[in-house]
Amino acid sequence: MNTDHDTIVAPATAAGGAIAVIRISGGEAFAVCDRIFRGRRPLAEADGYTVHYGTIAEGDRVIDDVLAAVFRAPHSYTGENSVEISCHGSSYIVSEILRLLIAAGGRMAQPGEFTIRAYLAGKLDLSQAEAVADMIASSSRAAHALASTQMRGGYSEELESLREKLLNLTSLLELELDFSEEDVEFADRTALRATMQRIAAEIDRLRSSFALGNAIREGVAVAIAGAPNVGKSTLLNRLLNEERAMVSEIAGTTRDVIEECANIGGVLFRFLDTAGIRPTDDRLEQMGIQRTMSSIERARIVIHMVDASTLTGPVPAPDFPLRPGQKLLTVVNKTDKAPAAWRLPEGVVGISAKHGEGIDALCDALRESVDTEALYHGDPVVSNSRHYEALSAAREALGQALDGLAHGLPTDLLSEEIRQVITHLSAITGRGAIAPDEILQNIFSKFCIGK
To answer: Is residue 232 marked as binding?
Structure first.
């Protein structure tokens, strides 16, 4: 990851819009812009947080009428002098302005370079920087709330609180080392154990939130499973409001898993339309059923579909195993063809996927299966696998420290064990030390250019 302080330029808006924004950041941002910007006065003389009307020109040739917003260091996104030029969205105009800015002394920014400069300037910690990318990629209200909470620093504040508590513990232990000849104990071991156990509980709570956070970030996986020809593909098409899956009266039409997304009640769901489950000698169908089982295994919610027209008694239980924590929704399809005396059992959703009956009730049941109340109230929820791995490493190290405390580990070794916990927690936010270059490269290479 290039972290020099050249003046960088890049478009900050997607192509095709009526208006485009071009960002410039660096020590020479004003000088670079003033070489091509013609306004009432040079941008180098302008106050911060002001907007100026002018033109972009190459000699006597005017490229476009623009607005230039001025941000002076350190009060900018990157912490550097910055300008944002708003121009017409023509791809030709944008490319011409970029060409002139580069000729005037700027260079094209790398993916994520504006945000990495914000991180290096202390404007954002590492977890907040990652939330910027999540905010841009958010495709539902829940994903937006998740990224917004993390970007505002609520998540960082909780981690910093844990880190401060651990630093206080090591300070007391290391103070004992300074007075080792006097055999003084500054950190009462009973109180020390209680504090460490409270920190462990907080780490466990954050780790347990990862299942929800990751599902919201990537889309809640919902497997639609059941026997052949019960209407699984028809239901998928109904939920998507388009003919995505091929539907046929012939049992076993679906041989592979079809995956599509739909936003329901502000939450993104990833629906997995699977092959029907039944005994078969057809090798292709057997392969499809194996993939069905894999989809069921990785799903957070499983819709077990049953054909109402085949029912002669109670709704059968699913003929596939569920793992702990999975939510099962039993859905009876083709209720318009159910036997006259049959009644829908309590807790079962009745639908007609073909005619659209009961779909709203099913969507309500899906939405209620995902508890986002804590998310919308700003409670920290872990959604990043890198953060989860760091928390897991911190919890393991804290467990070793607690074991050491129970077995009378010497003070210097106990302090070192706790410092390992601090190191793992600090890796999430990057506070206390700049993260290794390979971690920065991995994180910021996924950003779009211009952010």
So the answer is: yes
Supply the pTM of this predicted model: 0.78
Any known ligand binding at 275?
Answer: yes
332 is in an annotated binding site: no
Shared domain for 306 and 391, answered yes or no, is no
195 is in an annotated binding site: no
273 assigned ligand-binding residue: yes
Q: Is 230 annotated as a binding residue?
A: yes
- Asked if residue 23 belongs to a known ligand binding site, the reply is yes
Question: Is residue 165 part of an annotated ligand binding site?
Answer: no
Q: Is 86 annotated as a binding residue?
A: no
Q: Are 383 and 217 in contact (CB under 8 A)?
A: yes
- Residues 117 and 143 grouped into a single domain: no
What are the pLDDT digits (tens) for 302-357? 999 999 888 877 888 888 889 888 999 999 999 888 887 788 888 899 999 989 99
User: Of 71, 96, 125, which marks where a domain is finished?
Assistant: 125
Examine the pLDDT at 255 and tell me if it is beyond 60.
no
Q: Is 451 annotated as a binding residue?
A: yes
Annotated binding-site residue? 248? yes
